Request: fold
Amino acid sequence: MNAWYKAFRTPLAATLAVAATLLAAPPARALDNGLARTPPMGWNSWNSFHCDVSARLVEATADAMVASGMKAAGYTYVNIDDCWLLKQRGPHGELVPDPKKFPGGIKAVADYVHAKGLKLGIYESAGTTTCAGYPGSIGHEDQDARQFASWGVDYLKYDNCGDYRGESYRQRYTAMRDALAKSGRAIVYSICEWGNEAPWTWAPAVGNLWRTTQDITPRWHSDQPANHYPQGILDILDQQAALSHASRPGAWNDPDMLEVGNGYLNDDENRAHFSLWALLNAPLIAGNDLRHMSDAVRAVLTNREVIAVDQDWGGRQGYRVRRDGHAEVWAKPMSDGSVAVILLNRGRGPVKIATSAREIGVKAADSYTVRDLWKHASTTSRGRIEAAVPTHAVAMFRVWPGAHGAAGA
Reply:
């Protein structure tokens, strides 16, 4: 997280590992805490509000999540990011919520969110400070985990700022895993070490999800190399292409929060961003102001047919099938035998992109049902899937062998 506080962060030691190395590494066993069996869905305060977080904002966002239809579409977590606490721990070493921002404390906010049928998330760091310079949790893992549990916290985003006191990444993140396990409460564990030490090779045994990249920014492309921040949508997408083997129920690659409705993304880019993150089994954590979003943004975030791709119980992450210049084909096998497919136009000007049922791995059949997940319409094909895709846009389909009642699937 926290592109605004990079002075506290260490540079990325190297670019993300090459595909051959990743594929050669044996998969780490998944954390067996029974949580996040599908990618978490919710909202986080950072992208839109940075340090301007408060009980009033969190509670109003919970209200908006319900009123907008996002809760009904599957969004569950309302997550507080950095800057929610005081700069010093209390007299017994405890974390102290900022009384100006959270006058009733965190438990009161958790109670409010829970009463809406939602869950509350919070933020801390695996170093001496958070990225904004507030107290970190290193050396206080058990105490902080117990405190989170007593407040009713359901989700922890654990960042990577401050002094590490000579401890390795695995030591620091494993310490909080063990503390959460002893806390007495089921808390989803989100590792945020920015992809620095190839977490997909070790984090499945430690957390429920792990950041794979530097911070996201609401731009199509940032022109930054992989070891710099911030990263645009395409920059992050390219770093996911070789990671599909690591993703499975309870253990998810996290390409960072959604920027749908933020910054410089237009409607086509918003749809493309959301579609690609769904195909990647990414946690769908909205980062816009839910209280004041447009109908167009709401329609993107609540597209249940696209969400169904992300939330498929089989948990197989999508992958890039082919790249021809600015035109790409991505596919994701679904648990019912269908395949979700994205035709992506990275460049400017409309491009006709085509693939086939055979290329994307659909079982051979005499005909295929092709469901357009944005137009919500089904057609029949002999095996060809194609579309004229506008600038910075996608066409997204779900393809079944034979006839299928795909409406609303």
In short: The radius of gyration is 21 Å. Residues 169-182 form the longest helix (14 residues).
